[in-house]
Amino acid sequence: MASVQLEKLRKVYPNGQTAVQGASFSVADGELVVLVGPSGCGKSTLLRMIAGLESISSGTLRIGDRVVNDIAPSERDIAMVFQSYALYPHMSVAGNLEFGLRLRGTERATIDARVRAAAHTLQIEHLLERKPAELSGGQRQRVALGRALVRQPQVFLLDEPLSNLDAKLRMSMRVEIARLHRQLGATMLYVTHDQVEAMTLGQRIVVLDAGVIQQIDTPMALYERPVNRFVATFLGTPATNVLRGRLVARNGFGLDLGDGLHLSLDGNQVAPELLDREVEIGVRPEHLLRDSGGVAAGFAPTVEVVEPIGNEVLVYLRVGNHSLVARLPPGELPQPGSALPLCVAPGKLMVFDAATGVRMHPRD
Questions:
Q1: What is the pTM of this model?
Q2: What is the 3-state secondary structure (H, E, C) of 72-117?
Q3: Which tens digits make up the pLDDT trace of 168-200?
């Protein structure tokens, strides 16, 4: 296996569109790094640049000790798994697995050994004589993974490989990919727009928006210490609540939401120099708690919709022009149209600059 290093990689198309703007990060040998972001953020383009399927406008790309900017994809010693399975329909599973090796002139004994090993690892030995049309979606994806596995590449690149599967199968295949990574100790870059996949698979996550890397960190560090509003709202389901208003001193610190609405804030998390500034307050749904009285940061938004899910209850609320969602433990359900007294869990406020979205005085 090998490390991957990107230094100020850019992709600018002939029409002037910039898809990737100065991407710089490293993937350690044996690490699984996930590139995540909304559609059109540049994550797949960046992966294709690493694969050699897109040219690099500027910057330096290293795989292992080699600069590979101008090296053909076939010479980069990488294997790619695509969103579509891209299996040859007229070939058996065994034929699909061995096809790339046969093209490279690999000896028959080596081909057979690698195919058997990959089939055993992916638990598809009993499928080797079947054609792709006879397989389920999960089985086809295992074959696509196996085709990459038999190559024994330095780096695996996976471009949204689970997006064509249903929710239950995606969950089981996430476990399979995580297990495969642990077993192989392989260097992997994984692209997805699904933040649940990113959080559960990545040892580190690269968050992109509009071709720009927003933050790189471990899953829980991103969740707990996002550097800006975009990262805070992109990671987490339901998304982080954001309230915009002016910080004021009224019986302690508070956020003036307009129209006479006021949210009391924990003064320990709001620097005095932010008074009278327009800011945005971020609060994750699980950090909105039922207020039994006498707790800081209390307010009473109006209940609009209640979704009991069994182990939790999602409550959709409105305060002024702001929509909120709270994740509450099961129990007595609030009624739509009623006021629900809530408070913010101590130490869980996030304060963002209203103009730039950058987090201000983040929690340690």
A1: 0.89
A2: CHHHCCEEEECCCCCCCCCCCHHHHHHHHHHHCCCCHHHHHHHHHH
A3: 888 888 888 998 899 889 999 999 999 999 999
